Each structure stands twice: as C-alpha cells, then as structure tokens.
Amino acid sequence: MFGIGFPELLLLAAVALVVVGPDRLPQLLRPLGKWTAAAKRGLADIRRQVEDELHLAEIQQEIEESAAVKEIREAQLSLSEITPSADESADPSHWPGMPPDGPDH
C-alpha cells in the first residue's frame, strides 16, 4: 500500500501516539478505518463491474464471430448451389435455376 512497509507503519503509529495522545487516538482512527473499508468496497465493486463488462464483451465477440462464420457458411452453400460445375459452364441454359431456352433443349 503506497510503498509503506511494516517499519514505516510502526513509526507512524508511534508519532501519532505521541502527537495525539493515547486517549484520542482510537477516536481518530475509527473514522479512518471506516473510510478505508468503504474505499476498498467501492474499488472492489468497480473492479467487479469492469470484469463483468470485459466478460460480456468477450461473449458478445464470440457470438458475433459465430454468427459471422454461420453467415459465411450459408453464403458458401448458396453460392455452390448457384455456381455451375466445369462441364455446365459452356452452356448457361443448364445452370441451376435458369429456365430452358426453348424446345431444342
């Protein structure tokens, strides 16, 4: 926490004890503890919300990718139904979906 180790905390506690006095120190530390707890809860809530949003974004991306892949496969299937094979490419009247030209076919 802010690069403060145990020895620094002991020094701060000793200075606070000397400056404020032993009877007023608990009265001053109680609001500080409540504020610290509230700040930790708030940060935890923010972190949880960010993680939920990131997870939601990942799920949405997976859905979009799967929908895009599905669209591509459907397009490929529909193209394969429309595109003539090599032996049919010479005569467009044999293409699937094309009406016959007349009585000669």
Structural features, described:
- The protein has 105 residues and is mostly helical.
- The protein has a domain at 22-66.
- Helix content is 70%, strand content 0%.
- The protein has helices spanning 6-20, 25-82.
- It is rod-shaped.
The beta-strand count equals 0
What's the overall average pLDDT, rounded? 80
Proportion of helical residues:
55-70%
Count the helices. How many? Answer: 2
- Main beta sheet: none
- General shape: rod-shaped
Strand content: under 5%
Distance between the termini: 87 Å
Poorly predicted residue ranges: none
Q: Tell me the structural class.
A: mainly alpha
Tell me the radius of gyration.
37 Å
- Taken in chain order, the helices and strands follow as HH
Key terms:
single chain, 105 residues, mainly alpha, rod-shaped
Overview in brief:
The protein has helices at 6-20, 25-82. The protein has 105 residues and is mainly alpha-helical.
Topology, please?
Blueprint: H1 6-20, H2 25-82
